[in-house]
Design goal:
- The chain has helices spanning 6-19, 134-140, 142-156, 263-279, 289-297, and strands spanning 36-37, 69-73, 76-80, 87-93, 110-116, 128-133, 176-177, 181-188, 191-198, 200-201, 213-220, 225-232, 234-235, 285-286, 300-301.
- The chain has five helices and 15 strands.
- Helices cover 20% and strands 24% of the residues.
- The strands form four sheets. The chain has an eight-stranded antiparallel sheet, sandwiched between helices. It has a three-stranded antiparallel sheet with strand order 2-3-15. Strands 7-10 form a two-stranded antiparallel sheet.
């Protein structure tokens, strides 16, 4: 089924949705538990993770862009492909425990890289990459442990077809992954991972350009570090906003509407849009999949 983890959640939310058909708000605190501007390049010194070294994955973007803007951050570097962003900033995000934050915010100290002057502005997510000490995150967060285990299973079997229901999820999202398209293993300088297009919601949501993002999760070679990337991406045939009344561009697939309670119609909608996204050429997205793959492929995490 194209929308994986939404099936159970949808049933508990359907009554609320029918009463409030215009709901488009995620009640989540996803991104900013408090930040500190990076003072030193020592944030990546962390205990070795028990996660087994991933085996080689099929490479989608393992080589860095031929040209671009190098960016160094505490514990590593990357190259920003031309036209993707004007630059980047790095922050050390303080650790959050159960006493100081919501359950989905619990995490060890980590590095967050935010792209500035990104090709798309005003989207639900900021374009960013997070690098966590994997063992610490897994020990403190059940959601992180589950995602890291899912990722390890994928990397241990690189020749197996990717299953949308077995993909890792955002550990810090108080919402569910709605669907997955353009699933592909991808290597970066320090390890391997998987990328796909998705969006998150707490309700039966439209697939739209405000919420759609390129999602990458990976592990460095011996599993010490867990990498999560969220990069907004657009497709010309998707509506600009999540509101079902938002104009549908040519070639788009209409949302069935909240007046229906027919699960088959919702399933068909998600399957149809996912198939359309899968058939779309990588260079027809904004930014292109090649550019985003190149950014991830250039990532190097060191101690």
């Amino acid at each position: 089924m194209a929308w994986g983890g939404m099936n159970l959640m949808r049933r508990s939310w359907m009554i609320l949705l029918l009463a409030t058909a215009t709901i488009v708000v995620l009640a989540c605190s996803l991104m900013d538990p408090g930040t500190t501007v990076v003072p030193e390049a020592n944030a990546m010194d962390a205990p070795t993770s028990p996660v087994s070294p991933p085996e080689a994955a099929t490479q989608a973007g393992s080589e860095p862009a031929a040209a671009g803007t190098p960016f160094a951050f505490p514990g590593g570097s990357l190259v920003i492909p031309p036209g993707l962003a004007g630059g980047a900033s790095a922050e050390i995000i303080p650790a959050v425990d159960e006493q100081s934050g919501a359950p989905w915010d619990v995490a060890p100290e980590y590095v967050k890289i935010t792209l500035q002057g990104y090709a798309l502005e005003g989207k639900f997510f900021q374009p960013q990459l997070m690098i966590y000490p994997a063992a610490e995150y897994s020990a403190g967060s059940e959601a992180a442990a589950q995602s890291i285990q899912s990722l390890q299973a994928i990397l241990a079997n690189p020749s197996s077809p990717l299953d949308a229901n077995a993909l890792p999820h955002l550990p810090f999202a108080n919402a569910a992954q709605v669907f997955a398209a353009q699933m592909q293993p991808i290597s970066f300088k320090s390890g391997q991972g998987v990328r796909f297009l998705t969006e998150y919601a707490q309700y039966v949501a439209t697939i739209n350009n405000h919420d759609l993002f390129y999602h990458f999760q990976g592990l460095t070679g011996f599993g010490e570090y867990y990498v999560v990337a969220i990069l907004p991406i657009n497709a010309a045939f998707l509506p600009a906003e999540s509101d079902p009344a938002s104009p549908l561009p040519a070639g788009g697939i209409p949302f069935p509407g909240y007046e229906t309670v027919d699960e088959i119609q919702f399933d068909n909608y998600y399957s149809s849009v996912t198939d359309l996204l899968d058939r779309t050429s990588p260079d027809q997205f904004t930014p292109s999949l090649a550019s985003l793959d190149a950014l991830i492929g250039s990532l190097e995490v060191t101690k």
